[in-house]
């Protein structure tokens, strides 16, 4: 049932060259969503996964940035706020895009896709684009400490995290007179407040008006973003080996970033964001602080401390990871990124635990499947009751559930690859899909 549902969601949300995160709430292509979606699609149709990634990188800017939204010209301006007119910018390909970025988890998706079906031509084609994405971050966003900044909460992917409350207080909420679209689909109790939106809009307008160049009133070094950046370097080294290039510079960059993260963002129990404008660590309780577990270069002692924190403060043993520690001020079990469990975050931590602590990775895999089985492929879940929130038929929930089933199995029955193929055929689709090859 879960498999059938997951395949149905991915098939229905496919738009010919990429997958929308959700038909109504998010009707365009989103950057890190496409990476997670490709990871799931790699289990169904590696070709579709490659197409999804190439389509996103087709809208890469000349400076290397991969915009967080690539707009579908066939969708009405009013269908999503802030839409293409708000951002007012086009990629060299001609696509209207936003001008901010999201965590660079794409190298990971490329590698998973390549593992599902080794296609060296694809690796060669996408490798320079992944390198350019990293180069943009180094050139535009790297501090003397060797860490990458985000300039908008939307760049963290965890937009409404309580971790951003403090730096956002410094932002004068001037952006008014806009009409939110998200509340047409989802209850306001599960989405950011109007006040938060005013600040998001203010920041985005200021960045836009500087030609997407100057940092505004929000500049933060986020652990999840930096973990994704360092992991991308680690994977770029693997890709370089595969296509006959020198892995050395990528290996050194992965090590240096991991070290900088430990030196500057680790508080002894959890990785914390640093507010670049004040120079201080933000004392938060965000599960983003656990994602450095992804980094193979992370010292064992630091990993052990993180796992202790995950057990004590995030109830990791129960298999459902809240996005924010329930005992911390600001936690909300149902509101977007302020506490609910998200499958992409659980999946990232699961990746970081599989080799280190398989006895903890197993329950986390079961937890993701349990949430999806109980409430469907929702955008997020109450971490106590597993009730579903946000959008329905959400693509990365579907995709990552497929990946978990393929690797971990359902109820301990492993390797459901053939079953997934069967479900796909039930929908009249075959492995040979995704004919529209952009970029
Ligand atoms: C959410 O963010 C968008 C803005 O980018 C929104 O709320 O309209 C976040 O959950 C983000 O991480 C995600 O990529 C996006 C699409 O799923 O939705």
From TrEMBL:
Family: Belongs to the glycosyl hydrolase 63 family.
GO MF, one example: Glc3Man9GlcNAc2 oligosaccharide glucosidase activity
Biological process terms in GO annotation: oligosaccharide metabolic process; protein N-linked glycosylation
Domain Mannosylglycerate hydrolase MGH1-like glycoside hydrolase: 26-397
Transmembrane segments: none
Natural source organism: Nonomuraea aridisoli
Keyword terms, alphabetized: Glycosidase, Hydrolase
Statement: the UniProt record of this protein carries the keyword Cell inner membrane: no
Record's protein name: Mannosylglycerate hydrolase MGH1-like glycoside hydrolase domain-containing protein
Domain of life per record: Bacteria
Entry-linked SUPFAM superfamilies: Six-hairpin glycosidases (SSF48208)
């Amino acid at each position: 049932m879960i498999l059938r549902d997951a395949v149905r969601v991915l098939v229905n949300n496919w738009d010919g060259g990429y997958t929308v995160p959700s038909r109504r709430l998010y009707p365009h292509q989103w950057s890190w969503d496409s990476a997670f979606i490709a990871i799931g699609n790699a289990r169904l149709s590696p070709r579709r996964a490659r197409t999804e990634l190439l389509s996103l990188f087709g809208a890469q800017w000349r400076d290397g940035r991969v915009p967080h939204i690539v707009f579908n010209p066939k969708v009405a301006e009013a269908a999503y706020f802030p839409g293409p007119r708000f951002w007012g910018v086009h990629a060299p390909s001609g696509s209207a895009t936003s001008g901010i970025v999201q965590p660079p988890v794409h190298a990971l998706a490329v590698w998973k896709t390549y593992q599902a079906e080794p296609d060296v031509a694809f690796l060669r084609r996408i490798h320079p684009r992944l390198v350019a994405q990293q180069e943009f971050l180094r050139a535009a966003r790297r501090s003397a400490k060797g860490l990458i900044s985000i300039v908008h909460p939307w760049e963290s992917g965890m937009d409404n995290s309580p971790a951003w409350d403090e730096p956002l207080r410094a932002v004068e909420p001037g952006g008014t007179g806009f009409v939110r679209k998200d509340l047409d689909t989802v209850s306001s109790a599960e989405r950011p407040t109007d006040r938060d939106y005013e600040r998001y809009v203010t920041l985005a307008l200021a960045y836009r008006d500087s030609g997407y160049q100057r940092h505004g009133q929000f500049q933060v070094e986020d652990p999840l973003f930096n973990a994704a950046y360092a992991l991308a370097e680690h994977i770029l080294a693997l890709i370089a080996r595969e296509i006959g290039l020198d892995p050395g510079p990528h290996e050194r960059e992965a090590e240096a970033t991991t070290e900088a993260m430990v030196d500057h963002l680790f508080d002894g129990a959890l990785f914390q964001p640093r507010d670049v404008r004040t120079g201080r660590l933000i004392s938060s309780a965000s599960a983003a602080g656990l994602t450095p577990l992804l980094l193979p270069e992370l010292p064992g002692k630091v990993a052990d401390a993180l796992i202790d924190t995950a057990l004590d403060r995030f109830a990791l043993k129960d298999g459902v990871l809240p996005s924010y520690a329930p005992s911390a001020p600001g936690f909300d079990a149902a509101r977007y990124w302020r506490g609910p469990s998200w499958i992409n975050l659980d999946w990232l931590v699961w990746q970081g635990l599989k080799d280190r602590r398989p006895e903890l990775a197993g329950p986390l895999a079961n937890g993701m499947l349990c949430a999806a089985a109980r409430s469907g492929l929702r955008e997020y879940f109450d971490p106590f009751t597993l009730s579903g929130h946000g959008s329905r038929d959400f693509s990365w929930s579907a995709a990552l559930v497929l990946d978990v089933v393929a690797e971990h199995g359902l109820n301990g029955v492993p390797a459901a690859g053939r079953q997934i193929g069967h479900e796909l055929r039930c929908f009249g689709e075959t492995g040979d899909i995704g004919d529209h090859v952009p970029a």
